[in-house]
Amino acid sequence: MKARFQRQRGRLGRDSQAPSAPSEVPEGRRFGHPQAREPDSRRRAEQRTRRADDFLLGRVVLEARRRLLPLGAALLAFFARIAPPLTSALFALLRLGALAILALTRAGAAVVASLAARVGRTRAALWRWLLAEVRPARTYGIVLGVAAVFLGVSQFLHYHGVEVGSRYYEGRAGQVAPAPLTDLEVTGSAHLYVLLPVALLALLLIPATLRGRWQLGRVIGAFGLLGLLISVAADVPQGLDAGRAGGAYDSADPELLEGFWIQLCCCAVLTVFGPLLGVRVRERRDAARGSRRRRLRQSVRPPAEGPGLGSPGGAGA
Fold it and tell me: How far apart are CA 215 and CA 17, in angstroms?
């Protein structure tokens, strides 16, 4: 048994001291193998091809230069021969363009000066006419006439409406799409179109007032005051009443529309400018009477002094 154990131990020692096997080296990396020399040969072939291409390109460039130099010299000589007349023609065209622009500028300046002169004469004539024709009384008459016309027109515009669901249109939604209006009514229906004949009468009394009947200005002011009373006492309560729409819809808000406000403003203008028109007409009449009296006093001169009985000197004698 002891001998057998020693033989196995010796065999194991020889196996552990045996030289290791050579490491496996890829076949492509072994020295002298054809695949190891393949990248170097390919790189050399590419370099030779690139050098051949560069050589051919240089030969082509040299040949092109040799053949194109005479042609370039001929072209330069040709352009040098035609350059002076061509330049002269180009400068002539530029000169003609500049002269045309200068002529157009002068013509435009002349037209503008002519128009400015005509506008200046027209403006001066208009200013003289305004100074001669436009007077405070006439200005008041024009303002009252416009107010009377708009008062009559306002009777056919809407003065009352009810916004339906206004609380749902608050904020940005109301800016995009306002709340719908219902139960619309025209201004004249609130007071049986009473202010329509008032507007017509005021429009007829304005020319009569300008002709000298200054008392009619107070009548125009009374018409305007009547319109204000009707607007405040009759139209406002009816316009702010939601009526049946207030019970039929949720969040119904009554509103006074443009017809009411136009009527109110026109009545205020009649109330204020009617008496002012009467005052201006009366002042103009008084001034005309005073100037007439002064002219009469200047035209009546005392008789010349003399020995007659009618003269002051004869009476004293």
Answer: 149
In a domain, 269, yes or no: yes
- Token digits of residue 117: 């002169």
Please give the single-letter amino acid code of residue 306: G
Q: For residue 69, tell me if it sits in a domain.
A: no
Q: What is the pLDDT of residue 173?
A: 56
Greater pLDDT, 79 or 173: 79
**Per-residue pLDDT tens over the stretch 268-279:** 999 999 999 999
pLDDT band at 310 (very low <50, low <70, confident <90, very high): very low
pLDDT at 11 exceeding the cut of 70: no
Q: How far apart are CA 146 and CA 154, in angstroms?
A: 12
Question: Does 220 reside within a domain?
Answer: yes
Maximal C-alpha separation, the chain: 207
- Burial class of residue 82, CB neighbours in 10 A (0-12, 13-18, 19+): exposed
The average confidence (pLDDT) of the chain is 78
> What confidence score (pLDDT) does residue 314 get?
45
Q: CA–CA separation, 128 vs 242, rounded Å?
A: 56
Number of domains in the chain: 1
Distance, in Å, from the CA atom of 107 to the CA atom of 129, rounded to the nearest integer, reads 33
Domain range for 255 is 140-298
For residue 18, being part of any structural domain is answered with no
DSSP label at residue 32 = T
CA distances from 125 to 112, 142, 148 (A): 20, 21, 31
